[in-house]
Specification:
Layout (H helix, E strand, L loop, with lengths): L19 E3 L2 E6 L5 E3 H14 L4 E3 L5 E6 L3 H11 L14 E3 L14 H12 L13 E4 L12 E5 L5 E5 L2 E7 L1 H21 L13 H12 L23 E4 L5 E6 L4 E2 L1 H12 L4 E4 L4 E7 L1 H13 L13 E3 L13 H10 L10 E4 L13 E6 L2 E6 L2 E6 L2 H12 L3
Helix pairs in contact: 1-2, 1-6, 3-4, 4-5, 6-7, 8-9
The structure holds iron/sulfur cluster (SF4).
Length: 422
């Protein structure tokens, strides 16, 4: 069977039911469409990792949550807890509920549309459509409220609110020219997913993303246009240009309703049990909602100004980071040792040693630490790469190595210089 770009096997993306066997036990990934959790759901996740996993929660580059260190078979108990909490609405579709949405949409200025209802409609439509269970686990939707923060992820299917009042439909970051009113946008996004599946089948299967299809954007756009009712479309407007993803500001953020959202960096994207408990407590002072972003930050929205100050102090006391320039801001890493058998180093511990003691480097370029040349979780935007090798860490920027380094102090100095672009 022919397979686009050499893919010979279905994608192996883990889910809550189909776990990944890692070196430190099984890993389960729980999809959180739009990154929105209720505090009760966060509490369920926290209790699940305390009882069944290693006690922490990992945040992923798509705003999902991972539990590590699960014993064989523990996923059945986990699934029962997730279902009860509304975190596993479909067993058949659990791996395809990949939806990233604008952070703080409807709460802060900068967007043109509150996309939260649209994300819910898209997720419900996805789960209700049996054929869409066949999407690859890497297939991604984005819903951008017009502030331009998530369109740059180059999702397989992207919706972005445009100045003329509707939403543009993008495929792999390319504007298709299709414009839809908000009431039709979720349905058109699902039609685009069907168009992908039809082209995927015609090309023999095997693609994990739309860009892996032969001439995928043009062919899927043609299939989508053929499936659309022209009467439901809006006139095409100015083309949408894709920008790089934009991380939300860290710290206290003013909402349009006068309340405050707290945006906090989670060091290396791993929440401890104490941090989970502090977030849950803080969100009780607001609407009970907690947002997870693709930048490994968490958001506690809808707080009064007095409560925000108190809760900010409690959250930072647990190690969450509220300073926009702290060394931890923009730092990510793969699993490394001991979670990954391929890793050449314990990159997360080493990153902790470097960045916890760093100066105000968070205003510089992002940094990504990887334990081997597979470079898992590599950000899509410009960043400093710290790669473990047999001879120490290699620090690179724009694909150019800044020498192979033997000590952590030398590595730290090279990272600091690279973040400043010097
Ligand atoms: S980059 Fe290498 S070491 Fe890190 S998680 Fe991926 S395979 Fe493992």
């Amino acid at each position: 069977m022919w397979s686009p770009r050499g893919r010979s096997a279905p994608d192996a993306c883990p889910g809550a039911l189909r776990v990944h066997a890692a070196a430190d036990g099984n890993l389960a990934r729980v999809r959180v469409p739009g990154g929105r959790l209720h505090r009760r759901q966060l509490a369920v996740l926290g209790a699940a990792t305390a009882d069944l996993g290693d006690g922490g929660l990992e945040l992923t580059s798509r705003g999902n949550v991972q539990l590590r260190g699960l014993a064989p078979g523990a996923e059945r108990e986990l699934a029962a807890r997730l279902w009860e909490a509304g975190l596993l609405p479909s067993e058949t579709h659990e791996r395809v509920r990949n939806v990233i949405a604008s952070t703080l949409s409807g709460r802060t200025a900068g967007g043109r549309l509150d996309v939260r209802p649209l994300v819910d409609e898209l997720d419900e439509g996805l789960c209700a459509d049996p054929a869409l269970a066949d999407l690859p686990g890497r297939f991604l939707f984005t819903v951008d409220d017009g502030r331009g923060d998530v369109t740059g992820f180059g999702a397989d299917v992207g919706l972005v609110a445009v100045p003329t009042g509707g939403l543009a439909v993008l495929l792999s970051g390319t504007d298709t020219g299709v414009r839809v009113p908000p009431s039709a946008a979720a349905g058109v996004a699902l039609l685009a997913a069907h168009a992908f599946l039809a082209e995927y089948a015609d090309q023999g299967g095997g693609a994990w993303r739309l860009t892996e299809l032969d001439d995928g954007v043009r062919r899927v756009t043609a299939r989508l246009r053929a499936a659309l009712d022209p009467a439901t479309l809006l006139p095409p407007g100015e083309p949408v240009s894709t920008t790089t993803p934009t991380r939300p500001a860290v710290g206290r953020v003013s909402q349009v309703d006068g309340r405050v959202a707290l945006v906090l960096t989670v060091p290396l994207g791993r929440l401890t049990g104490a941090q989970v408990a502090a977030l849950e407590t803080a969100s009780a002072d607001g609407s009970g909602e907690i947002n997870i972003t693709p930048w490994r930050t968490v958001v506690v929205p809808d707080l009064g100004t007095g409560e925000a100050g108190r809760r900010l102090a409690a959250l930072t006391a647990e190690g969450l980071v509220a300073e926009a320039t702290a060394g931890w801001v923009g730092v990510t890493g793969c699993a490394g040792r001991p979670g990954c058998a391929k890793a050449l180093a314990d990159v997360r511990t080493d990153a902790g040693r470097v960045h916890a003691a760093a100066g105000p480097e968070g205003s510089g370029l992002p940094v990504h630490w990887v334990g081997c040349e597979r470079r898992c979780g590599r950000p899509t935007d410009r960043h400093v790469e710290v790669l473990a090798t047999d001879e120490g860490y290699q620090v690179s920027l724009d694909g150019r190595s800044r020498s192979r380094l033997m000590t952590l102090d030398e590595t730290a100095a090279a990272i600091a210089a690279a973040r400043r672009g010097t």
